[in-house]
Amino acid sequence: MPRRIRNFVDRAFARTVDLDLLRRFLAPFMDTIDLDWDALPAGEADRREAVFDLFAKADNRFPAVLQFALYNITTLSTDPGMRIIQEIAQEAGVDLLARYSVDGCTDDLRFTPRFIALVTWLDQRVIFDRALSAAAFLAHSTRLERDADREDLVPQHQEAAVREAFAEAVRAHFAGRYNGHYCDVRWFEEDDLLRILILHGSKAETRNVDQEGTEDTLKFREIIQSTIEFDPRRGAVSVGSKSATDAKALVRIFGKHVLGDADTFEAAASQQLYSLAPLQDHGQAFRFHIDPKGEITHVALRELRVDEAELTQTGRLRRSPWFLTINDASNAIARLKQIAADLDIRDLRIVHAKIEVTVEVDDVETVVPVTIRPPRTVSMRDHSHERLILEMLEHNGIRKRRWTGQAAAAAE
Description:
Mean pLDDT: 86
Strand order of the largest sheet: 1-5-4-3-2
Shape: globular
Structural class: alpha+beta
Distance between the termini: 57 Å
Number of strands: 12
Largest sheet: 5 strands, antiparallel
Helix content: 25-40%
C-alpha cells in the first residue's frame, strides 16, 4: 500500500494540487504521520517539495484509514474514473468544481483526474462512493463472455427472494473456495444493463510484520472484486474476476438464480465467439465499417501476430516453428504485405489483432486500445465504451452472435 501512496502524490500532483485542499484531506492524520503543516517552508515551491518528500517516504506509519482513502482516490484518479465521477455528478445536478473555479479561466490546468477525485472524496462522498462502485466494472481488462442459448431472457432480480438466493449461492461458493467469511453483493441498473458487484475475500496470505519491535506474523485475506454484467438486449453476460474458475462459477450461479437456468450460457462455452476470418478473407483491402453518424469515428489495425499453427484432425493445435508480429499506424495487414510479400495471410493463422478505436462523445475524443484473441477473448483497459465497440465488432463479422430461430427469421 505505501507504494500506492507514493504513486498518488507524484511530482506533477505536488506542483499543482490546491494546498488548502490537501491540508483539509490530511488534517485528521497529521499527528499520526508526524506532519506539522505550520512548520512547512513558507515559500510555495519549498512547501510543495516538502509535501512531495512526505509522500515519497510513505511507510506503514500511515494509518490504515489514510491508506484506504488514498487507495480509493487513486482508483478514480484516471481519465475513465474522472468521466464516471462527472457523469454521476451531472445526473445529481452537482457542480463539483464550482467553488474551485477561477472567473474567466475556461481551461484550468489544476482540474486533473486526481484533483477531481480528491475534491469529490472531500465534498461529495455519496457521489464518490457511487463512482467507486461503477469503476469496479472497468477494473478487469479481460472478462469472460458468454452468449445465451436463447433470446427473450428476462432477469428476475427485482424479486427480493431471487437476490437473496443469488447472494447466498455466491457466498457459499467463495466460502468453499477460500474459506473466507466476507461477501457483499451490490446490484446496479444502468440504461438496460444489469450490473452486479461482488466484494469477497481471496486466498489467505501470511506476512512477517514488525509488531512493536518484535517479529510477528499476520494472516489476512485481501478483499477483491468480481463483476457481472448482463445485457438483455444482446443476451450476453460478461464476468470480471481474478480467477477463471470463479468467473465460470458465477456465470452458472447467475443463470440459475437470476435467469432460472444454470445452463443458459453453457452452449457458448465451447464455441467460437471471436473470429479474425474477415481480415484473412480480404487481406490488405480489409477496412472496418463504421456508422458515419455513430460515436466511433475511426478504427486503426495497429498490430497483427501471425504464425503457421493449425488444428489437427483430432482437434489439437499443432504449434508453429515461428511467429511474426507486425505493427503499423493504421493497417498492419498492408504492412505485412510490404515486409513479407511472399506470405499469403490466407495461409496463416492470425494469433491476435490489436486495434485502436476512436470514440467521440460530446466533442471529446477517446482512443481505446482493444486486443482480439480468438476464439473467445477480447481485452480493453477502458470498458467505458465496451458496448459500442462490441457492436462494431459484430457488424464487421469479428464477434459472432448466437442466432436463434426467432432472431434468424427476423433477420431474413
